[in-house]
């Protein structure tokens, strides 16, 4: 698992090559403000090899954050991450590894009959109850999450991960009401508190696509204040000294800034944005889709680009994300070595200050 000594030592090795605030506090130590995402790509051997090379290059160049999930690329992404970690010069204690559970994963490739696969691999062995499934492919029941955590550890060939996310819990809102989903999260958090006490995870989080950046009347909305309250209750039940909820993940980029602009979460006497809530409560924020799955590398609004540092459009788009208050790191796909090197170089430039970032929205 990542440690304070390990991550600070990593920062000491690479920090002088980057601009201010490139490394940021998270967990027991520090983490690079760029992280590698592993969602995109076909489940093939060729893509596996590109991922392994790109991740190893990043770990050897000043990026000590890797984000994955058990369902990404039919479990191949986790396996590629594990291979790259072993091939890298970075020590395990220097690298923050995050993964997720919630979606039922295929194994190695997409089956011809996904419904039959789910029945044979998950329902019939008793790993999931059909009543717990949303959209036929998603569960956050404790036993299922713990089974997926064990599978992730095996795929990664690790004894523990630093951050384990409950993946897109808003998917469950297609099958049950909001209060029931909060109850599901409470059950999940109690299980994850037990796994944290056992040393299998350093902490846990909630990774979302819509839940934290939409208005309260939206069908996919979940209130961060209620989510945190359920996690604090879980920690109390477990007898933990502190709550294990460490972070949230949600999309944030130049074209998708709802996490900063939409004031949807209970924050005392007023509603606040997801980023403001996270800042107030000391939660890490990991921004997915930092380049809009590659679209923003082709262009961002010129008036915004003019305010940002970077040699390329992609670098300026990434530095927009890094400039947002409360963002711990921008997650970027690790598709090729060339893209990794370009993205890492963005960290040699300084992000906007808070006043300059606020001015973008005036």
From TrEMBL:
<protein>
    <submittedName>
        <fullName>Aldo/keto reductase</fullName>
    </submittedName>
</protein>
<dbReference type="Pfam" id="PF00248">
    <property type="entry name" value="Aldo_ket_red"/>
</dbReference>
<feature type="domain" description="NADP-dependent oxidoreductase">
    <location>
        <begin position="35"/>
        <end position="215"/>
    </location>
</feature>
<dbReference type="InterPro" id="IPR053135">
    <property type="entry name" value="AKR2_Oxidoreductase"/>
</dbReference>
<dbReference type="InterPro" id="IPR036812">
    <property type="entry name" value="NAD(P)_OxRdtase_dom_sf"/>
</dbReference>
<dbReference type="InterPro" id="IPR023210">
    <property type="entry name" value="NADP_OxRdtase_dom"/>
</dbReference>
